[in-house]
Amino acid sequence: MEISPDDGGLPRYPIKTLIIISPILLIIQGISELIKNLDIFLNSSSITLKL
């Protein structure tokens, strides 16, 4: 297990794990937003405003 060079320091593996996981989660969030906005765009023609 990798640990900090300082005595009593925090282990480094959680930080290294987040460096790998964060971009993956960001890509998944981007795909989610794209699908949501595409659905709004394609279904907006069926929505009518009543004034």
What topology emerges from the helices and strands here?
Elements: H1 13-43
Between the first and last Cα atoms, what is the distance in angstroms?
Answer: 65 Å
| Total DSSP E strands | 0
Portion of residues within helices: 55-70%
Task: Choose one word for the global shape.
Answer: rod-shaped
Structural class: mainly alpha
Main pleated sheet: none
Low-confidence stretches: none
Mean pLDDT: 82
Radius of gyration: 22 Å
Helical segment tally? 1
Strand content: under 5%
Helix-strand topology string = H
Characterization of this structure:
The protein has 51 residues and is mostly helical. Helix content is 61%, strand content 0%. It has one helix spanning 13-43. The mean pLDDT is 82.
Attribute tags:
51 residues; mainly alpha; 1 helix
Short précis:
The protein has 51 residues and is mainly α.
